[in-house]
Each structure stands twice: as structure tokens, then as C-alpha cells.
Amino acid sequence: MKRVITYGTFDVLHFGHINLLKRAKALGDYLIVALSSDEFNLIKNKKSYYTYEQRKSILEACRYVDLVIPENNWEQKIDDVKKYQADVFVMGDDWKGKFDFLKDYCEVIYLPRTPEVSSTQTRSYLKSGNEGI
Ligand code: C2G
């Protein structure tokens, strides 16, 4: 059983996220998503539209996701890799190189981001009132 782990806020879930989760799952048999808590989002200077519980329930409905755990800080990744026996750590390549310290514990893979889509973009589009068109 090859176990994959990834981290993120996954707010306003979009096809860029799904593309990442799909490719991450394809790297093993079991995908763990460490989902940023609302408190950690503040540390990341990210204000998410949906709460942690709402984002968690949306992710748990995704066919590629097997387990959602909370991401509360920057420091928990090594402990998580050990605790959940992750064989592969995956992130989008906007993080390329940032988590190479995990190479001592598991495979580290950065996948190309999906261009032209982001939660921020979606949110501002909806806010702009175009949604009626
Ligand atoms: N992503 C992607 N393509 C996009 C948008 C996001 O591949 N168009 C990927 C990101 O690279 C990341 C994952 O989807 O791997 C989740 O994206 P975010 O929710 O924006 O995650 P982030 O805020 O970068 O949190 O400790 C790590 C952090 O928690 C990562």
C-alpha cells in the first residue's frame, strides 16, 4: 500500500485542485490530504471563503481523497510523514524546492500547477456580479 500525502487550503475547490489530487492519487494507492485549518490560514495570510469543516466535507466527497487531516502549522510535515507512513509527498510546483527536507523521509514530488485557475480568481469573478450572465 503506497501512501501519498499532500497539503493545502483547497478553498472553493476547482479543477486545478482536482487535477493535483488526481495526479497525487495516481502516484500510490492511498491519498492523505493535510487541510489547512482556519487558524493556519491566518498564518499563511490566506482568508478562505469556506471554513475548515466545510472544506473538509467537500474534499472527503472527492474520489481521489482517502483521508483528510488538519494542517495546523509549518512544522508538522516530518511528524505527519512518519505518523501516516507516507511514501510520497506531493505539492504543486509553486512550492518547488520548499519541502526538499522531506527527502530524508519520503519521495518528494512537485507537480505542474494547472494554469488559469485559482480560488482567488473564482471568488473575485463571483463578487463582480457577472454570475448572472
Ligand atoms: N494547485 C494547482 N493548480 C492550481 C491551484 C492550486 O496545482 N491552479 C495546487 C497547489 O500547488 C497545491 C494544492 O493545489 O499543491 C492546494 O493549493 P492551495 O490550497 O492554494 O494550497 P496552499 O495554500 O499553497 O497550501 O503546507 C503547504 C501549504 O498548506 C500549501
Q: Name the average pLDDT.
A: 95
What compounds are bound to the protein? [cytidine-5'-phosphate] glycerylphosphoric acid ester
Give me the secondary-structure category.
Answer: alpha/beta
Helix fraction by DSSP (H/I, runs of at least 4): 25-40%
Rg on CA atoms, Å: 15 Å
Distance between the termini: 47 Å
Low-confidence stretches: none
Q: Beta-sheet strand percentage?
A: 15-25%
Write down the secondary-structure element order: EHEHHEHEEH
Count of helical segments? Answer: 5
Q: Using DSSP, what is the number of strands?
A: 5
Which sequence of strands runs across the widest sheet? 3-2-1-4-5
Main pleated-sheet profile: 5 strands, parallel
Q: Tell me the overall shape.
A: globular
Sum up the structure in keywords:
single chain; 133 residues; alpha/beta; 5-stranded parallel sheet; 5 helices; 32% helix; binds [cytidine-5'-phosphate] glycerylphosphoric acid ester
Give the secondary structure arrangement, pairings included.
Layout: E1 3-8, H1 15-25, E2 30-36, H2 38-43, H3 52-60, E3 67-71, H4 77-83, E4 88-92, E5 107-111, H5 119-127
Parallel strand pairs: 1-2, 1-4, 2-3, 4-5
The structure holds [cytidine-5'-phosphate] glycerylphosphoric acid ester.
